[in-house]
Task: structure prediction
Amino acid sequence: MTDTPDRTSSEPRSGIRWLLVFWLFTISAIAYLDRVNMSIAGQAMAKEFHLTTIQLGSVLSAFVAGYALFQAPAGRIADRLGPRAVLLFGVVWWAIFTSLITFISPGLTGLLGAVIATRFLLGVGEAVMYPASNCIVSAWIPVPERGMANGIIFAGVGFGAGLAPPLITYVMVQHGWRSSFWVSALLGLIVGLVWYVIARDKPAGHPWVSAGEVNYIRAGIPQKQIGSRAPQLSWAEIIKNHDVQALTFSYFTYGYAVYIFFSWFFIYLNSARGLNLKQSSYYTMLPFIAMAVCSPIGGWLSDIITKSVGKRAGRCTLAAVSMVLCAIFLVAGTQVRSVPFAVVVLAGGAGALYLSQSSFWSVSADIGGTSAGAVSGVMNMGCQIGGAISSYLTAVIATKIGWTAAFLVAAALVLAGGAAWLLVYSAGDTGGILGSRTTREVSSTSAT
Result:
């Protein structure tokens, strides 16, 4: 059972945990600026490199493949080495590979392979982002505040992805597509260095944090997570856990749907809806604005419902309902002829999807405990595999059948993902996998 934080303590609380959450929001925004720039500048690059739409889909999928495959290892590394240093390393890595693509010559032999390899390695570097941030949430954020904390962090996804279309388009028009990648890389380096200065892995190790905040955080975190000797989970314990399996499948369907917006929405508006470059850049912002707004709203609702009704309602039911709403919006958006109204409806689908975002990460932090990085890495690997499939398969479906079919496939998958939340029973109420292990150990000892 999680202790309730002592809100009557007279010791002042410094609020450093929210500074770290805000900066994770900033890093999250830059990370998505780095990855969405390819969907904006991709057409100009593809024209120079003579790539077809399906070849461009392979390039987009390469990033997500690298990102997906290294989620679980990145989470384990963050658990062991600490999120502060791991995030700095990741930011430097992705700055290098974001800019490296600009040095590829159109006349290079094996050009497509070189572009795919560069984007794959960029994905490897970015894989540390959210497992490492979940380590911070697990160590710094009391359980009753995790919905809002994750909601703020993942609002950075919508903010960064929404900022990308006008910013990348402006830089690209003024200075060429290569300059847009250099700007993204430079911003990443700046926010990464600031992160290393202001962050620490644990509250007690931070020079700015007050004793009141340390005590408040400790009171709101399961006791088995506290201390340098707190055990970590084995891969078998994580992968065999039914809650992790359900979360991973649901996040797979989530990833399939959301990557249509990240990878193809700009091109969809430009080619299927007939908008010009400038119009597409502005309309593309709407789904990402919806994500940025709905992510913290979802986190806030999740915490409120959790406190008043319980974790299963606050985390699981809210996520299931949100994903069903997303499926409805996606289907409706394909039937609307008016371009502005269609974009608003589809943006509503993106927003509804992000109402569920904090639930995934709050539950994975709760059930993972000291292995929150590894658990969330496994879960997020499912999301990114869905995204990798979506980035390629959407191009195939849209080319051979049409864009309506591409959105309907995403809607069907999201509906299945919402149903999977009904199979998540613990939501961390028993101390997660670690608590279940301890219960088994105690029962075994009592029996002997």
